[in-house]
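Researcher: Here's a chain I'd like modeled. Treat it as a single chain, no partners, no ligands.
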Amino acid sequence: MAPPAPATVRRGYGPGPRSRTAGAADPHTAQRRPVVEVDDLRHGGTPGGADPADIRPGAAPRPAGTPKAVGIVWGLLILNTLGSSGAKTILPLPRSLIQMVTMGALGAAFTLALALNLRLRIRASAFVFLLTLLLVPSVISSLQLESGFGALFRCTRLALFAGTLWLLTRWWDGGLTFVRYHIRIYFAVLGTVVAGLIVSPGAAMPELYGGRLVGALWPLTPPQIGQYTAVITGLTVLLVLGRRTDRAGAALVIVPSLVLLALTHTRTATLGMLIGLTLAIGSLVLTSAAARRFFTWSVLCATVAAVGFASALRAWFLRGQSQENFTSLTGRANVWDALLAAPRTTTQKLFGTGLSDKSFGGLPIDNSWLAVYHEQGLMGLTLVGAIIIALGGVALLRPPSLPRACAIFLISYVAISSYTEAGLGDASAYLLHLALAASLLAVPAGAAPLEAAEVPRRQHRIPRWARR
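Model: Modeled as a single isolated chain. Structure tokens:
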């Protein structure tokens, strides 16, 4: 009889011919190794449901999904930026209580973000890096205490704000997750405005603000409400064009938001939304048929509205003001001229006078660039300009896509609003909009390349008599 054939060792996974050796288990009861197809490995699958890092030594794990608690962190950041001063509410809320809630929300956001990212895994971000550098002139000028001890408190707030964003960069992957957080949370904030309007219409549209809509439950000013409605309206329109949401759900957000925007009579928010949407949709025209159709119909409707409702639109924009008052931007130009004419030392020109409540001579500055110059000097002005230029430059270099269009909308809106609104030099909703744009422009963190799975070699059939 011929000698027995040597045992055949089969590479790869799956059952195959096995030899009986001394002390070997019964082949009929031996545990078989799991079968894993080569295609599964190519698409990120793992044998037996193991972690992808177990495929080969030193392989980095694939990026996990965004935890739901990250949305809570984003909501706490939004709560912190709602502010503590505004219209009179139905139930009087002490300003100290509101500040305690907003500052507590920021502390909770930082703590929760740290708990979610204990290993401090962060991603490089030019936006957050420049925002962190903005702390330098803020601290240098605030230490002089020209604006009081509140300046140091605001520096601490800005540091926690930037630190929370650093912790969240781990989940910035160029996706639309944070866009949905943004829309849902601000829509909930606007829900409180609608509730206040229903409960007390007189308090929600007081004569002190010229009959414009304000927050009657939480002290929100008309520009704030206009900003929130314009941003979520623009983002929702872009999601519809990108087929990332259904039209019924989008209408549930867009229609009430436009009604609230009209009730606030906020010209800056309206122009920022229209111009931002024009630029964002224009970036999709070459690659999206839906964007081309929407752009065409929008131009036709705008032309008809400009011709047929010119007088009504003009009356809405004037808000009952005289031409002179409208030209001076409701008295803002007078404050700007006084701020620029005020004498300053060399240190104040370079680093500013410290973080304050964005006012000069008891009047609001209402201009982000002049507010930064006043509080953080030329150094702060340079850093804020670098933030806008860096985000805009990266957006222009990205290929056309829906996240890029959303980022272009946000950057354009903030750039336009900065002319009549302050907030780019401190923790504010405008910086959150830019942070959202930075998350949309982030390059997705790709999984480490897997080694090519070894394909089992074809084995020749061994006759039964040889195996015996």
